[in-house]
Amino acid sequence: MSMDTEGFSYELLDSFGLPRPDGWERIEAPGGMLAVAHPPVPAGTFRPNMVLRWAPAARASVARYATAALASTLEQFEDVRIVSHDLWESTADGTSVTGRRQRFVHQVGPHPVCVDRWIWLAGGYALEATASYTVDQHIGMKLLFEHMVADIRIDGSVPEGGLYSGQQPELDRIAPQEPRRDEFASRWMGADVEDLAGISGAQPYRESGDVFSIASLELLDTLADRTRLGRFQRKDAAALELQSAGLLTADGTLTSAGEQFLTPTRGNDAAFLIEASGAAGGSVMQAWIGGGLAKVTTAPSLFSASLPSDAELGSDELFVRLTQANAVPKLIADWAGLSPAWSLPHQALILPKKHYLDRLEDARTIAPKDLDEAGTRMWEQPWTQWEVLEERTGAWFGWVNAGSAGQYRLTPGPGENVRLEPMPSDVVWDVLVRFIHASVEGIPLMLPELPDFSTNG
Q: CA 20 to 30 Å from 171, out of 91, 295, 323, 454?
């Protein structure tokens, strides 16, 4: 594949060429790899980079290599969320390539790092291009990396060579055989694709954070514009809880930890309400962003793994964490169960509001008569509605997580209807990141009006 792009030069090794944007630097990498990185950045800033690696493909399919990459990601990284796994097609110089594109987010020191990974076969080799950048860098880096991977060069005379250390043995260990095929998705998409159903179960949401009563959090919020509780407030049980957590002194004065805990609400740039609902009930998450920090409170996710016995939550309690502001998109994706699925293109589903609400609460609700096969597949999956509201501006977007059928964009339909449109999970991630970034920066967004999901009127 090659296509000259203005502003790119190439770093070469063997018969492979990796685009290097002007000012970027080639960095040292083991055999069978090329790597380039963004110009040097200040200390404490993540340096975006792209790595190209290759190894003889033997007789393994691209699906097997991609499956091994997913399994390795879950095994290798902690606090990781695999967001998407999709078909990827590229055409350059008359050569058509079909592979896989994956996206996951994990923690590197203080940085939530987004990784876009492309896997394909060419010239008898398996190739993998990996682009890494932080959530903050998403706006500037994502499209650049897409141009770079589309412009990778292979000169057509790939040398015969032995295995590069650790590559093929690792494939045999982690993916010893071809993955199971998703028969329905393969038929609908006209391409052999692997079954993704197990990925969601392999990354359930795990509750974490400190546990606070709602009363103590409300009491702490009264200190948004002062530093000390009133005399009678200090006698409240909630005050004792805050003292025990190290946020208040015995006389009701904020500690340095308490001051930091209030930073997101005192210097509030944005506040988000995330609600999820389905047949299993409902739950709520809230996030306040300000001063580079975020305070996030969660009730148990509808996608939680079983709670350990020492982390059970009372009806008047919430999990609370103070974290960096750029961690919020991943926390929402975790809590809402965003996972890879084959998002099959089909006609948008338009339902009367009551029919939609009935189906959301009860999977036995009768389907519309005019559904095609992909729509029927979606109808038969478990549904969980999740929506994100920016509380200051009223900006809103919503989705339905339809299990192995993937994500559906939820918008108002004509009249008293709602509209459900299939959307790949990487698009959901892009919308989430851009929505939060725009809200924090005060950038207007063109988003649908918040639908009225009540049964009145």
A: 91
